[in-house]
Task: structure prediction
Amino acid sequence: MCALEITQLRRVYRRRGGEESEALRGIDLEVTRGEVHGLLGPNGAGKTTLCKIISTVLLPTSGTVRVLGHDVVTDSARVKESLGIVFGGDKGAYDRLTARQNLAFWAGAYGLTGARRRRRVDELLERVGLKGRAEERVGSFSRGMKQRLHLARGLVRDPGVLILDEPTVGMDPVAAHDFRALVGELRGNGTTILMTTHDMAEAAALSDRVSLIDQGRLVLTESPDTVGRLVSSYERVDAGNVPDPLRERLAAMPGVVSVRRVGRAVTRVETDDPDATLAVLRELVEAGIGDVSRSTPDLEEVYLHLVGRRGMAVDG
Amino acid sequence: MISRAATTVRQAAVLARVDMSVIYTWRTWLFGWLVRLLCQVVFYSLIGVLVGDPEYTVYVVLGAAVLICVAETMMATASTCWDRHQGTLGLLAASPIEPGLFFFGRSLQWPASATVTTSIALLAVPPFFGVTWSPWQVPVLVGIAALASLSGYCMTLVLGSVALVFSGARNVISTIATLYITAFCGAVVPLHYWPAPIRWAAQALPATHALEAVRLVEGGGSAVQVLTALGLMVTAGLAWFTVAFFSFRLVFARARAGNRLLD
Result:
C-alpha cells in the first residue's frame, strides 16, 4: 500500500501585480510504506513546496496528495496526526526553552501527556544524543544540535510518515553519521520517509528510491542502483595543456557533453557514451597530449547534467 | 477534547512563563516595571489634583489604575508575533494544535502580571488621593483586576491575530488601540461626554465595565450592581475570545492558501 500518493500536483504562487510563478508542475509520485525516498533538486526546484503541501502547511493549486490514504485538503486533521516533519535550518525551535521543554511542548501538541510524554521525551533526547544538554536553553545550541532537536521533534508522535526537509544541513560529520544510522533504524521500524537533500551521497546511501526534481517537475524516479548505472554511463577525460583549436574540435565530437577548464592547465571533457570517450582519447593522443586521465563522474555531476548547469541561478 | 484543549493552553502557558522569566527577574519586575506603572497612575492622578476637583481626582486615579491592565495585556499584540519570528508558525500549522487555544496560552504572562500590577495600583495609589478601602473591598478589587486583565487579554488576542499578519505594524496596532481605549472607556474622560454611538461602542470594551465595577465598589454600589458590571465584562471578554478563536483559524487558513506567513 502507498504511504504517499501524489497525483498531478500543481502549485502556483501569485505575486504582487498578478504575476504567477509555478512552483510545482504536475508532480506524480508514489512512495510505498516503509520506503525511504530521496528527493534531490537545486534551490527553487520545488522540494520545500512539495514538503509543505504534504505536511498540510500549504494548499495545492490542483492535484491530490494522500498520506496513508488521507487527503491533505479534505482530511488534514488525520494527516497531521500521522505525519512527522523536520524542516531544515536554524529556526523552528523555541530558543528560550530548554531542549526538554521544547520536546515536551511538541509532545503535548500531539496529544501525549503525563508519564507517557516524559518517557517519550527522555527516549528521544537519548536517541538524538542530546540527553546531556537536555536542560540547556536551545538558544545556546549550535546549528547541528538544533537540527538534532528538530529531528527528535519530528519523531515525538512516532509518525507513520516522516518528512525530512534538508535534515543534515549544519550537522557535523559525526552527527550526520548518527543521523544516517537513525534513518536506518526508522526504516527498520517501518516508518516511511521522504527526505529532501542536496547531498547526493546521502541520498544514494539512505534511499530505496531517488527522485530528481527540477523547475517543479520530476526529472526521474529510480533506485540508487539505476542512478548508479546512469552515473557510469557518463565518463570524463582530463587532459593537460590542450590548445584552443583542439578543444573546439573535441566539443564538436558526437557524444561529448561538455568541454571546460577545471584548472589553469587542465581541460575536462565529459561524455555520455563510452565510444565517445575512446574517440576523445584517440584525438588527444594523436595531437601529442600525453597528460591524459579517464574517470567516471559522481552522482552530483550526473545530477547537474540532468537538471542543466544553471550555476547559482534560482528559478523564479 | 477538553483535556486536549487544556493541554494546549497549559503547554503554551509554559512558553509564557519561560518568556516572562527571561524578560524580567523579580527585581526588575518589582523595581522597574511595577514602579514605572505606579508612576503612570500617579502622573494621571496629579492631573486631577491640578484641575483642583477632588471628585475628578478620585475619578482619574481609579481610571489610571485600571488602565494598567489595558496597557500590560496589550503586550500580547507583540508577543503573538514572536512565533512568526521564531519560525515555529509552520510547525504549529502542521500540528494538530488549535491556534486560538495555543495563542490564548502563549501570552498568559501578561494578564497574570497585569492582575498583580493592577491590584497593587488599585490598592496602593488611591489612598494617597483621598480614597480609602475597607478590608472587605480588597479581595473584591483583586478579583475585578483578575477578570479585567483576562477579559482585556481576550480582546488583545484579536488584535494579536491581526498583528500576526501585519507583524511590522504590531506596535502601531497596540498603541492606537491603547489610545482609543484610554479615550473611550471612561478612564479619564467620563463616558457621558461622548456621543451615543461611541458610548455604545465602549460597551464592547472590558475596561469600560471593569471601571464601572471599581467605581461602584468605591462609591458603595450594591453587590448586584457590581456583579452586573462584572457579568458584562466577562461577557465582553468571552465574545472577544470567540472572535479571536475564529480569527486565528482564519489567519492560518489564509496562510495555508499561500501568503508566506508560514514560511
Observations:
- Chain B has a mean pLDDT of 94.
- The interface with chain A takes residues 3-4, 7-8, 10-11, 14-15, 18-19, 22, 86-88, 90-97, 256-258, 262 of chain B (CB under 8 Å).
- The radius of gyration of chain B is 19 Å.
- DSSP finds 13 helices and no strands in chain B.
